[in-house]
Every structure is written in C-alpha cells, then in structure tokens.
Amino acid sequence: MKHYYLIILLLTTIFSLPSFAQKTPLNFTVEYQTFDHGRLIDAENPILIIANTQQTLVSTLKEFEKKQETFPLEEYYIDVARKQRFNLSQLNLKERIGSADNVLDDPKKYTLTGQTKRIQGYLCKKATTTVNSNAIELWFTTEIPVKGAPNLLGSSLGLVLEMTRNKEYRITASKINKNIPFDIDAHVKLANTPLFDALTYQQKIWQSRFINIPIFKNETINYTANARSNDSIFRFAKGNVIVRKIKIPKYKKGSQLFLDVTQSSLGDAYDRTASVFIIPTYYKSSFLDALQNGKELLPIYTGGNGKKYQGFVATPTFNPLIELMRFFTPFGIGKFNHIQIKDKIWNPVAHFRQEITAYAPLLKDREVYIGMYISNYDSAGHQVSADISIHPSESEKEEAVVIMPLFNTVNVLEMDGQEYPTLFSTDKGLFVEFELQKAVNNAQLRYITTGHGGWKAGDEFNAKENKIFVDGKLVHSVIPWREDCGSYRLMNPASGNFKNGLSSSDLSRSNWCPGTVTYPMSVGLGDLAAGKHKIQIRINQGDSQGSSFSYWNVSGVLIGY
C-alpha cells in the first residue's frame, strides 16, 4: 500500500510543476483489493485504474512500477475518442508489444437490476452478466465522469467499483483519488509499440512465460540401410534412433518441466513403440558407445531362460537409458488421412505431452544426449518434433537427491540385433542389484510397463500381473491395462476394421493404446538404507506360438527425496 501512495505523491509533485501544468490531464485513480472466499489476496499488488474522460489505463502496482522480476508486464489501455482498446505488454527490459481491438465492452450484455449501494462514498448501480458459465455481479457508478473496470467487464457502463464472480471472488475499490496529473500517453508509448493481431499477441505473451528448448524439428525416423548423421542429429539402428546433444540452461529450483512430442506418418501405416530417453554418460562406457559402435559393447544380462540380453540393466560401471516418455504411434496418422469413413475426420498429427519434472536435477545447467526411438520397417517412416519447456514456479518444490536408472528393456537397437525382452518367461524375470552410498528416504520407483505380442494369445491383448520385489519383499503388484483405446479412433485412419464393428485401434491393451502416452507409475519403496539392495520384476509372460512371442518393455528409475 505504501508504494502506491509514493507513486501518487510522485506523480502529483512532478506534474504540478509549471512546465507540465498545461499539458497533463487530471485523472481519477482507483486502487482495488482482491478477495477469494473472503481472504485478501495479492495485497502487495493491487489493481490500479488511472482514467480521465478520454483515456483509461488498467494496470497493477507491479506492472505500473515495471519491476523486471514480474515480466511479462501486462496493461490495458482504452482510447475513448478512438473507440479502441489496446492490450500492452512489456515482455522483458527491451521488448514491448501490443494488440488493438476495435470491439469495446458491449453494454447490451448486462442486465440492470435496479439495486443500488454506496462504495467509497459514490452511488453505484448493480448489473449482472454471465461469462463462461460464471455468474458476474458488477457495481458501477456514473457519478465519476470516467469509464473503466478492473478486468474491463462493465467498462461501457461507467466506472466499476466492485466485481463479484460466483459470489466467492471479489474485487472492490479500496481507495479513490481525483485530480491526479499524469500523462497516460507517455506511459503507454503507443507510437513506439509494435502491434500484432490478437492471436499472435496472446502467443507471444504465453511464450514469454517459460523457456522452450527445441530438441528435434520435423526429423525423420525411418528404416534405411544408409542412416546418415550430420553436425547436430545422430542417426543409429538403421534410422530407427535419432540423438541430439542439448544444452539445458540453469533454471529456478521448483520449476516444472514438460516434454512435448508431435508425430505423423510419412509412410508407415502401423502402430509402433516409441521412446524418448536420456543417455547417461556418467561412466567411461555408455549406451552411446553401443549406438555408435555396436550392441557388443553393452553389458550382458542372462535371463532365467538362458538367453543373453544386451544393455537392459544397470551394473557398477553402466547405466541403462533413462526413459523420459514412452508413446505409441497411431495407425498411419497423416499419410493415410485420405482413407475416408463417413462422419469421421482424422486428426492431422499426434501430440504427446508429459511432465518430466522428476528429472529436473539431471537436466539443469547441463549438456545431455537426448534420443528418440520408433520401431518401424518403413523406408518413409515417421516425422517427429520434440521440445522441452521449463515453467518457473513461485514455490521451491522438493527435488530428488538420488536419481538412479536401474533397468530399461526397450530394445532401441532392435535393428542392430538387440534381443527382444522375453526375459519374463521364467520366475527369475528381471533381477537387478544396486548399491546406495547413502540412505534414501521415501524412495520411489518410476516404473513404465507395456505388454506386447500382437496376436490373440499375445500379452498385448491379455492382462498380466506385474510384481515388484525389493530385497525379496513384494512391494507392489499391478495389472497394467488400458480400456480407453476407442477414445483415440480419430487418430488412426489406417486401423483395420473387423466384422463385429470394432477397429483394431479400439481394442484394449496391456497399458497402451495406438496414439497415447504410457504414463509412469510411482511405486513407493519406503526408506532404503545405505548399502546393497536387490530389485526384481516378475511378470507371467505368455508362451510363444510358433514364430510369435510375447515380451514386456519395462523401465525403472530409483528416485529419492
């Protein structure tokens, strides 16, 4: 509050000088307090209106003072004479943008109730309206010869001194001053502000609120014997894997991180397993070496069935891939949208979005190798893009102090001969030993699991229990299953249709659907003491039938807080 009075005093002092006396209009200034369920909020940043008969400026204390830590700084300006409203924003210390709107507040959308009351000594009338299913009550006065409102609603009626939404959220005038000299034109700087259309303006505002880091832009993942890398994109496994080294900037603790992926078919008509991952490079040997020089460099895990599996589990000198996102491409989205079915309009592209804040400590202020894999045998393949966005938080949330990749059976080197994960055919399942240097409280396993085997008896279409043991004790049991696959029919133009009226993309599956993300499970492991531990995953994998076999893609990362 004291900051506001200092501003008023400063404005009054400066513009009362003789050189300004004839040039600067006198204004009414209104300060508003905001209440949510009766509780005062944003007490240090009240809404401000500065207005005269020809102009209205709607701002807040922080926007008005232009404190750089509050960017973007947004204000509204109404030019009454020109009948125009301007949205204005200071995106940073150097960039200012705006948008002009010739459609002002419409008085016809309000209903006058005939009720009156006094606010700050001024007689106010009540008007009501509805906005996006919210009941709005406005109290406005015509005793002050200016027009304006704290959120522009009702600004055509007069000066709104109080607004209530759903009787729970209230903005009310707490202080009104008059005859305050202030040059609104000099403040809004319209002549020096580039104006954009409304949608472009909104997009620029939105983009200024977070950091966006491009990873891949319209890259191709396909099957080719001549996969070629360039200066920025590495291609491996006959084109099924792309990798890029990314510099992640430093950001505030508690920030939220999201991974966005878009995908469309360039020729592949089938649903495919896809994964976005970090390649840990903490040891002398890493998965990157195997991508570059062959699967033989990966450590071997011997399953209970006697088979040798490459690079699936952690060892004292090797980390498996850290899976950020597992998604499944729909049947031919994009390339096969020419297939017509009455009353169905196919989505042009698949969009996948997932929070990856759990891995914030691994990414902050570092260079990391991030890769994407799509299993496919098509020479045209798929087109993909990917970005990481970092969204600052006002509260510093707790971050993980331990992030330890334990296993990942997604065989991204499939095209170079890496075994399919059929290791769950015996009771041994997947067995990993790991050592903690320090005790970990509230340990969690970030667990992603999907079952595969695409025939009637295969595990893709049969629910199977996943059991997780730590140090010989069962800590979690779950049957991963998705029954909502039919919700994504419009993403699957090339999905086959059956005689019973179903499409292949409708069928329920072992924790995935064509065109969806498989979200991680957070499995509580309790407190783990320093020293060696064992984790085991057991799944009742189905038997092979001829050349057809079932397998499970599982990945797990130990996270401790």
The coarse silhouette is elongated
Gyration radius (Cα, Å) is: 30 Å
Unreliable segments of 5+ consecutive residues: 12-22
Number of helices: 7
Distance between the termini: 40 Å
**Fraction in helix:** under 10%
Let me know the largest β-sheet: 12 strands, antiparallel
Total beta strand runs = 32
By secondary-structure content and strand pairing, the structural class works out as mainly beta
Mean pLDDT: 93
Which band does the percent of strand residues land in? 35-45%
How is this structure best described in words?
The protein has about 550 residues and is mainly β. The chain has 7 helices and 32 strands. The chain has helices at about 1-15, 20, 60-65, 185-190, 200-205, 285-295, 360-365; strands at about 25-35, 40, 45-50, 55-60, 75-80, 85-90, 95-100, 110-120, 120-130, 135-140, 160-165, 170-180, 210-220, 235, 240-250, 255-265, 275-280, 300, 310, 320-330, 350-355, 365-375, 380-390, 400-410, 430-435, 440-450, 465-470, 475-480, 515-520, 520-530, 530-540, 550-560. A hairpin with a 2-residue loop joins strand 1 (about 25-35) and strand 2 (about 40). The chain is elongated. Residues about 10-20 have low confidence and may be disordered.
